Amino acid sequence: MGVNLSAIIETQKIGFDSLIGKTLVVDSYNIIYQFLSSIRQHDGMPLMDESGNITSHLAGLFYRTINLTEKGINLMFVFDGKHPDFKKAEVERRRNIRTEAKEKWDNALKDGNIEDAKKYARMSSSMSEEIIEESKNLLTNLGFPVIQAKSEGEAQAAKICRDGKAWGLASQDFDSVLFGSPITVRNLSISKADYLELIELNKLSLSREQLILIALLVGTDYNPGIKGLGPKKGLKLVKECKTIENLKKQINWDFEVEIETLYDFFLNPPVFNDYKINSEKLQTDKIKELLCEKHNFIEERVQKFIDKLGKKKKQTNLFGF
After folding, report:
1. Which of 120, 139, 145, 234 is close enough to 76 for a disulfide, judged by CB 3.0 to 4.6 Å?
2. Contact yes or no for 215/178 (Cβ under 8 A)
3. Are strands 146-148 and 168-170 parallel, antiparallel or unpaired?
4. Integer Cα distance of 155 and 149 in angstroms
5. Mean pLDDT in runs of 10 for the chain (321 residues)?
6. Number of Cβ atoms within 10 Å of the Cβ of 314
7. Measured between alpha carbons, how far is residue 20 from residues 64, 69, 70, 76 in Å?
8. Measured distance CA(161)–CA(154) in Å, rounded
């Protein structure tokens, strides 16, 4: 989910035409979760095949990525590796939220309250290992590079950007900035977005180190945050204290993991330095096997989009990493 720093981070509005010819590395877990949350039926139910298997992630990845590719945007995808042990509490908290949301969703459906049903349905979204593996297989067979992170996907993606292998990182989360991505692009997964949001780290009024400290005060995926401190109050406190040592004197850090440990994790996250960026050939038969034979996608429409992707690949040096 990441930390919400929208109140203190400056963003620029850009159009899709600003990304023509550029390469974005996508935080896969983030975009898949967006598809699972947003691609739903009128009552909040996710898209499903005839056997009741969820297909929202496949629909989003297939149609959205091909449409973005057709706009001239190069994409590669990074998947999370092993999460740090201190994230277990947050994972459990999210699981409880999803369970509670599922109960509220069911009750809203029984009461005929469709608006509440949609809201709680989105909150109940979760990713299974099958969803993750299907997503990897689909993207690989479409010819997109798929990279496995050592730990957090955004940290690995930020590393790829700093290495100059991608122009920017696509994610809704501000964690990408904390992990040091020079450029972050938001709203890429939103099909009807009128504009994208661009964050350039070196043009922000705050340093990366300051942003990390503010995030830790507000609360991240690894700590609950200090009660009563939002981004603006956190900013004021960080500017006044200047150092992490002075900051500790002003707050009650009553958490299991020390603030220095979390600060260092954002500043120096575990990443693979020897990652490979490889892309496979477009595998039409394997795509149809997954989408049409297994999940009942309409073959004619699938073929139409495969043809669009194949045509674009022939026109450009797409995926020539």
Report:
1. 145
2. yes
3. unpaired
4. 8
5. 85 95 96 89 87 95 95 96 86 78 79 77 80 97 97 98 98 95 93 88 95 95 90 95 93 91 97 94 97 97 96 67 46
6. 8
7. 16, 9, 10, 15
8. 10
Buried b (16+ CB within 10 A) or exposed e, 294-308: ebebeeeebeebbee
- Residue 123: its pLDDT value, please? 72
Pairing, β 183-186 against β 196-200: antiparallel
Query: If you ran DSSP here, which 8-state letter would residue 146 be given?
Result: E
The H or E element containing residue 281 is: none
Q: Which amino acid is at 82?
A: K
Tokens of 195: 């504009």
Map out the domains of the chain with their CATH numbers: 1-205 (3.40.50.1010), 206-269 (1.10.150.20)
Whole-model pTM above 0.85?
yes
The residues, any chain, with a CB within 8 Å of residue 286's CB and separated by 6 or more, are 137, 141
DSSP per-residue letters across 179-223: TT-SEEEE-TT-TT-S-EEEEEGGGSSS-HHHHHHHHHHH--SS-
Tokens of 161: 């950007």
DSSP 8-state class, residue 293: I
